[in-house]
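Write out the bound-state structure for guanosine-5'-triphosphate.
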Amino acid sequence: MVSAQKEWIQSLRSGDARSLARAISTVENRASGWSDLLKALFPYTGKARIIGLTGAPGAGKSTLVDQLARLYRNTKNPHSSRKERGLNGAPDDTYTVGIIAVDPTSPYTGGAILGDRIRMQHHFADPGIYIRSMATRGSLGGLARTTADVASVLDASGRDMILIETVGVGQDEVDIVRLADITVVMLVPGMGDDVQTIKAGIMEIADIFVINKSDRDGAERVEREIRALQSLAVRNDGWTPPIVKTVASEGKGVEELGAAVAEYENYLQKENRALKKSVENWQQRLVEMLRDAMLEKARARLGDGSIQRLAAEVAEHKRDPYSLIEEIAGKRS
Ligand SMILES: Nc1nc2c(ncn2[C@@H]2O[C@H](COP(=O)(O)OP(=O)(O)OP(=O)(O)O)[C@@H](O)[C@H]2O)c(=O)[nH]1
Ligand SMILES: [Mg+2]
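---
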């Protein structure tokens, strides 16, 4: 078994898309062996740059991710060690890309998901770009955690840039982009109360703002609104998120966005900021992992249906929930 896993990892790391797909499915579905796989992959992680991109439905996220992927595929990676990975004849000195599209749960965006697949089709011939859609419904172990684990698999596979697209609507999405090294928040003009249409929590975590659909009226207004917001809440790390105007559908502003990303990366390299950010991210991830593990342990100990039975007892005031939890969690153990 162990050597089978070794072979699997070896072929995944050599750029084999099928092994990569299988690994992602295993992790995403929490299928048998998922944690052993992640354990074995962990030493190979930590090299990729993870860029989280979020914005309102239809803002143009997929279009921009597509453009960014193209940009990176045409940019020389000074740290490339791709030769040993042999990506089927793809240029081996440019950045390789992994894309995770976190499917929006809202039913009215269902059509856009299909659109994504069609729009991104032209990359499928390029083994240097790997695209994966993730289902949010029925996600095991929490969406943010699963997405982070899938990103780790892509990282271990040697992808240099991992782009995660998610609709900025809920806490899940905030959690996902928070786990990225670089968070890009996309706004578009002409959505009424522009900046207000994006959840406040997401505005705060932006490292870079993108105003897409700048071919439309009102881009300047959105920019002013962002600036006004920035003047109210200065980041305590001293970074002022730049604002990049794009027309993703025409590829305009994409290079500028690439430059803004590079600038932020440079900033992160200084004064150990990247490490600090990573520690913060892991702190959050560890708490979530621990919470899940403890809950699982408690559930296993109590047995199926016990929580429901206990809930009934509390509802009927047969016992108080506080002592109950202390008992289960073993307060003094
Ligand atoms: N006018 C204009 N249209 C754009 C621009 N960028 C994208 N679009 C169009 O906007 C529509 C939505 O683009 P998507 O890239 O699918 O948007 P999205 O944010 O990924 O959408 P969801 O994943 O459904 O939330 C498409 O018809 C794009 O062609 C732009 O800069 N200007
Ligand atoms: Mg999309």
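---
Confidence is low (pLDDT under 50) at residues 104-115.
The domain at 44-271 is CATH 3.40.50.300 (Rossmann fold).
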